[in-house]
Amino acid sequence: MAIKLYGLPMSTCTNRVIICLHEKEVGFEFVPVNLFGGEHKQPTFTAKNEDGDLTLFESRAITAYVAEKFKDTGSDLIRYGNPNEAALVKVWSEVESQQFNPAISPIVYQFFVAPLYGSSADQAVIDANVEKLGKVLDVYEAKLSSTKYLAGDFYSLADLHHLPYTHYFMKTPWASLINSRPHVKAWWEDISSRPAYKKVSEAMTFVSNQLYLTHTLSLYMAIKLYGLPRSTATCCVLTCLHEKEVEFEFVPVNLSAGEHKQPSFTTKNPFGQIPVLEDGDVALFESRAITAYVAEKFEGTGYDLLRHGNLNEAALVKVWIEVESQQFNPPISQIIHQFFLAPLYGKSTDQAVIDANVEKLGKVLDVYEAKLSCTKYLAGDFYSLADLHHLPHTHYFMKTPWASIINGRPHVKAWWEDISSRPSFKKVAEAMTAG
Ligand SMILES: N[C@@H](CCC(=O)N[C@@H](CS)C(=O)NCC(=O)O)C(=O)O
């Protein structure tokens, strides 16, 4: 069965796939879709396939499939058989999708597409994204001064994915962002002179009689986490993001310079504390609320931290999340504050506060010991967000002279050794330097 590609010649996402099919010398039937007539929303289209029985959408997933399936024809776009180079192709494909695309697509959208819909271009959106794109291109310039293409000295899918948006971008007044960076310019000239791209580029124009735009330009922004790698609350969120295998941008906040008390930060968190997580228009603070959001939103990826679909287990996870917050956290955070932070701020450690809280924590841990002698983890025989929330404070606590109150309780000790050896936390713990 012949491959059929449904799309439109001016669409960036359609062209990403066409260029790939040309590179791989794969024959296909092109079926134009009349978006203006809403054809793409009809059941005939929403049930679409097109390679035999397989249905694929998302242009980057389609190119990966084509490059893999037709590995023996055309250019090798994924460095088949070389795991290191193949991994670098994946890295730079992600960079295109996570860093480059979110900045360039709103510019192209505002400049070309908004006017087609009768709205005026939003200059503030353009300006913000031109600045963002410039920063991404600074990284590209540095990379391309050491290798000819993004993933190495070979053209790959990672370079190819940049073609459609850059094609349109070069027709805007901000093309100098590319042209003024000599390595980026040379790279662009190289990749845009490939026959596979030249075959499609002529048909790529936004014209007003083609109002039925083929592509919905995604204006999604990468998730941003503002915080510090040594902060316990930040570490909770970082560990959760790793467990859920979520891509994010980490934005360090300079606490010593008081950056978290400046209006630019207190508009995100009125309490002027880290961490803050930004996901599109939403700015969230309070680490436990953030982890709950991440674990819920990314239900489909990574480890299930909330026991989705099992009401009883999910309720027990909530119970032990509350126990951590109401019983465990108050004494342990006091001990850590007195032992590690007070001296950093030039204050002396208040031993009476430590003693009182060690006693309090011991009583909480007696309850944990009894619970963990019946179930492997706090909420049941499954690791959950409730266990995860204990990690950062306990990590520092184990470096104090009172670690024996964990080690002296065999079930608590075994539980701690188990949860702290998960790869998601080990990654985070390496950067936890406050203790
Ligand atoms: N309950 C908050 C606590 C946040 C918190 O205490 N953050 C600390 C760093 S771990 C902070 O921002 N400290 C600076 C300050 O409070 O000025 C959460 O869980 O997010």
From TrEMBL:
Domain of life, per lineage: Eukaryota
EC number(s) reported in the record: 2.5.1.18
Domain GST N-terminal: 1-74, 221-302
Keyword Ion transport: no
Domain GST C-terminal: 82-213, 310-435
GO molecular function: glutathione binding; glutathione transferase activity
InterPro entries recorded: Glutathione-S-Trfase_C-like, Glutathione-S-Trfase_C_sf, Glutathione_S-Trfase, Glutathione_S-Trfase_N, GST_C, GST_Phi_C, Thioredoxin-like_sf
Entry keyword set: Transferase
Family note: Belongs to the GST superfamily. Phi family.
Protein name according to UniProt: glutathione transferase
Organism: Liquidambar formosana (Formosan gum)
